[in-house]
Amino acid sequence: MSASGLPFDDIRDLIANLPSADRAAIRAKREREAQLTKPPGSLGRLEDLSEWVAGWRGSATILRPVVTVFAGTHGVTKQGVSPYPSEVTQQMVTNFASGGAAINQICAAYDLGLKVFDLALDYPTGDISVEPAMDEKTCAATIAYGMEALAGEPDLICLGEMGIGNTTVAAAIYCALFGGDPADWVGPGTGLDDAGLKHKAEVVARAMETHKGHLKDPLEILRRVGGREFAAMVGAILAARTQRVPLVIDGFVATAAAAILHKMEPSALDHCLFAHVSAEPGHIKALSVMDKVPLFALGMRLGEGTGAALAAGIVKAACQCHTGMATFDQAAVSNKAGT
Ligand SMILES: O=C(O)c1ccc[n+]([C@@H]2O[C@H](COP(=O)([O-])O)[C@@H](O)[C@H]2O)c1
Ligand SMILES: Cc1cc2nc[nH]c2cc1C
Predict the structure, then answer these.
(1) Within a 13 Å sphere around the CA of 303, how many CA atoms are in the beta-carbon half?
(2) Assigned CATH topology for domain 8-331
(3) Catalytic residue among 33, 47, 51, 304
(4) Is pTM beyond 0.90 here?
(5) Which PANTHER family does this UniProt record tie to the protein (predicted)?
(6) How far apart are alpha carbons 147 and 316 in whole angstroms?
(7) Which residues have CB under 8 Å from 237's CB, separation 6+?
(8) How far is the centre of ligand 1, averaged over its atoms, from the C-alpha of 71 (Å)?
(9) Can you say whether the dihedral through the CA atoms of 154, 157, 158, 161 is positive or negative?
(10) What pLDDT is stored for residue 7 in this prediction?
């Protein structure tokens, strides 16, 4: 803890002292890229991806990619904001452990490790429409716990989550951070109908009213209208940065955790890639407010880190191209027309 004894101060200190990408590694990567057997720039955004990995890792090599899924339960589910009961969160964590979820199959397809962190699932956070989700100590401790995502020294992290009710919480975070009407930020989540959507917007509006006057500081927003998986994802993003590990953000929900850091210091997300734009309507809006361009849009809205894991497959292929391709000299391929 810092000298003042306030746990959030440690997080602020960390954000004030983040490392930058390695310029020399990026220069070396560009020099090799120019010699590979293809027209310059012809691998499009794949070339940006391998450069992004090289900038944080020193070379465009990925040996230990891991998907981390943070699961939390939410008091706001009492308000009837999800078509599914809160118990589904624990049930899906059990499903992850036995290999039956979508994320297990994507990890298998791309040879990605999977780690699931359940965050006190028997103790839902406070109902954000009437009270803070967490006290400061719990919030700071959960941020610290999220830093465990770095255990095992992964060299690429995909950030995902599971938590019935958490699209309401994500909408509240966006509304508090970026303003606008609650209706701009809520969406069907796991499948609400129009009446459910209207009610969800009212619940988010109530949360804004309950916490008004306390929504200037992003960490206070996280504590009041966030949830445990959001706090843990903030910790994972920060720990990845301090250890220079590139990190891929999943959908609408994971992006809300990233948005907390973006509001504090936009460059805090320089090591992050936004995998996809989710079908949840507020996601495209959040990405454009932060000026982030996602890799793809496949109409996915599952969470679990599935979009991020798919993106990791693309990142792996981009790095393999960079490290495995022959140069013009090696392959005796003419580098320019007529030579
Ligand atoms: O992140 C997304 O893009 C996303 C969009 C819709 C639903 N989800 C997932 O659905 C769950 C939350 O939905 P809900 O309707 O219970 O708020 C949670 O487990 C999320 O992972 C996730
Ligand atoms: C079954 C189910 C699986 C999920 N995975 C992520 N969010 C989910 C929500 C539900 C309801």
Answers:
(1) 26
(2) Rossmann fold (3.40.50)
(3) 304
(4) yes
(5) NICOTINATE-NUCLEOTIDE--DIMETHYLBENZIMIDAZOLE PHOSPHORIBOSYLTRANSFERASE (PTHR43463)
(6) 23
(7) 159, 247, 249, 257, 258, 261, 268, 269, 272
(8) 11
(9) positive
(10) 82
Top mutation candidate among 190, 250, 301, 304 for ligand 2, by most atoms within 8 Å of CB? 190
Max CA pair span of the chain: 73
**How does pLDDT run across 30-88, given as a tens digit for each residue?**
999 999 999 999 999 999 999 999 999 999 999 999 999 999 999 999 999 999 999 99
Q: What is the pLDDT of residue 2?
A: 45
> Which residues lie closer than 8 Å to 250 by C-beta, 6 or more apart?
158, 159, 160, 161, 275, 276, 303, 304, 305, 306, 307, 308
Q: Which of 167, 186, 249, 287 to mutate to test the pocket of ligand 1 (most atoms within 8 A of CB)?
A: 167
pLDDT tens digit string along 116-161?
Answer: 999 999 999 999 999 999 999 999 999 999 999 999 999 999 999 9
CA of 339 to the centre of ligand 1 (A): 55
> In terms of Cα–Cα distance, which of 45, 103, 48 is closest to 296?
45
27 Cβ partners below 8 Å, 6+ apart?
none
- Is 304 catalytic? The answer is yes
Ligand 1, CB within 6 Å, residue ranges: 82, 84, 161-168, 189-190, 250-253, 278, 280, 283, 301, 303-304
Q: How deeply is 241 buried, as exposed, middle or buried, from its count of CB atoms within 10 A (0-12, 13-18, 19+)?
A: buried
Tokens read off for 293:
């361009």
Q: What angle do CA 278, 281, 283 make, to 5 degrees?
A: 55
Distance of CA 266 from the midpoint of ligand 2 (Å):
30
